[in-house]
Amino acid sequence: MCRWLAYTGSPVTLDELLYKPENSLVMQSRHSRLGVEPMNGDGFGVGWYDDHSPIPGLFRSIEPAWSDRNLRELSQHIRSGMVIAHIRATTGTAVQQTNCHPFRHGQWLFAHNGVINGFSTLKRALRMAVDPALYPLIEGSTDSETLFYLALTFGLTDDPPAAVAAAVGLIEDVALRHGVAYPVQGTFATTDGQRLWTFRYSSEGRSRSLFRNRDVAVLRAQYPDNPVLHGLSDDTRIVVSEPLGDLKGAWLEVPESTCLVVEDGREELVPFAPVLTTA
């Protein structure tokens, strides 16, 4: 399907997230441990925030992450305290830059691992539900970008959990009317550069994997000789499709049907359920 990573904390270079961990995102692009398939080579993308603009930087490519020399070069020089990175395994749509995650609208980023089942059948009805002012901004052909613009239509910039719940509810309602079972599968991440919202949900109740790191201060006390932990700030929060390493106790699974909200190092887990919405 795909793999993604969201980071918030003190600024780090991108290679600290994408290359250096034992099971880094670039490593997962060839050898995913928990994905539907081990290889995610249909492009990648990374979005980051800095002090120059509230609009995040965005770099996307159709090259496999493991072989893109530009990504390796840039990652050693870009520093950020809020990052979303994604490696893609297409579920049928074209391998092109506009289909690579994360997607950007203004100061917002969005990434998805999963699928809208029966999307070819549901696509017209779902896209017709997008706000007419937003519709022309859709650049690609993926179900993920459609989900993002539905969430924007339902107020993502004001209340992300409610907007994602409404978007998922609409998809499930349209799927029911078209005879498509279990339409939504996935994990989602979105941020405005200040707060991070991540979601784990599927219509079937068997979502793709999602993990968050244990409190860094606790891990530092548990592993006082681990140099990696001493390089992380106490407010570091990393949410990932699969753990970046095998350090015992470092990773906690995000529960099924849950929204995780992170701000200034504080996190909150709240139940997530779709809200019935009709087109």
TrEMBL record:
PROSITE patterns with a match to the protein in the record: GATASE_TYPE_2
Keywords noted in UniProt: Glutamine amidotransferase
UniProt key word Kinase: no
Domain Glutamine amidotransferase type-2: 2-279
Xref: CDD domains: YafJ
Listed name of the protein: Class II glutamine amidotransferase
